Amino acid sequence: MSNTALPLISVIVPVYNVKPYIAKCLDSIMRQTYTNIEIIVVDDGSTDGSEHICDEYANKDQRIIVIHQKNGGLAAARNTGIDAAHGEYLGFVDSDDFIEPFMYEKLLNAAQQNSCTLAVCGINYVFDDGKVIPKANIEPNQVFDFPRAITEMNTYRLFDMGAWSKLYKSNLFDDIRFPIGKLSEDFFIMFKIFDRAQKVAFVSDACYNYYQRTNSITKSKRINTDFLDAAYSQMKYLDKKYPNLTIVGHVSYASSALTVYDFYLKNHVNCPKDTMNNIKSIIDENYQYIKVCSYISKTKRAQFYMFKHVPHIYRIIFKLYRLAKRVN
User: Fold this and answer.
1) Among 173, 191, 217, which residue terminates a domain?
2) Pick from 254, 220, 92, 94: which is nearest to 167 by CA?
3) Cα–Cα distance between 286 and 253 in angstroms, integer?
4) pLDDT by residue (tens digit) across 17-52?
5) pTM of the entire predicted model
6) Do the Cβ atoms of 172 and 82 come closer than 8 Å?
7) How far, CA to CA in Å, does 253 sit from each of 150, 214, 289?
8) Domain termination site, one of 217, 232, 253
9) What contacts 265, CB < 8 A, 6 or more positions away?
């Protein structure tokens, strides 16, 4: 079968000042076993030479299209890529990450064989020292209906709301775009994408390599309170449209409040008193949902209990845990 008979996949790569990483990223996409792809590289105003590397790669492979634009952030770059895409399917790869050669072949097969418009794969966490921690092969390949998929996404066990480990039918993004100027931009839209898809094909193999840069945005001193706003948006959406999934939205909102507090601890930034009070009130108001939630782990339940009743012990244990574990 010729490439022209196969569906086109548009792979969108936002680029901003990633000179040490961009070549490895683009090489991994060019080496895909599924070859009918267009690679839309959106240079979001790079100033470190990344922009020139992008142009060099476009000269090497006719499947690469480079768009240079003024710096507008990750969401703006992804949105530019979506608008420029011609593919029946869309994928996203962050420019400091890289993917396994079989990623899009496996995701497309899973989507087509299960009549799904969305497929998601397992991932590897890759560290500066070369250490790799897989988050994959925990369970076999399977298909999740919407209630199970949205629940699973919010547990972060098999997959989460990251845009990059997934393959989407392009029409899932009709009238949906990433919110510009927000951190956790994926979280703001992914529950809507999952709702539109209604079922998700899961590939258990680790196909996506998520690089843990020490100077990445998640390690910066800017505290990501947008994460909490995204969780609130999801909660209100589920409350209104899926009352049977109320527990998922409320537990996720409480969990996000705890995560925001963890950001302060992780980044060694003092949590302001009003923020701390807000976090406490969110957890208190949603504690009834936590108590009856059947799917949260014993560890997570213990975290909520400690934060609520002995926050000083929570802080100590959190710091010890961070020393022992490198990925949350």
Assistant:
1) 217
2) 92
3) 8
4) 999 999 999 999 999 999 999 999 999 999 999 999
5) 0.92
6) no
7) 13, 27, 10
8) 217
9) 315, 318, 319
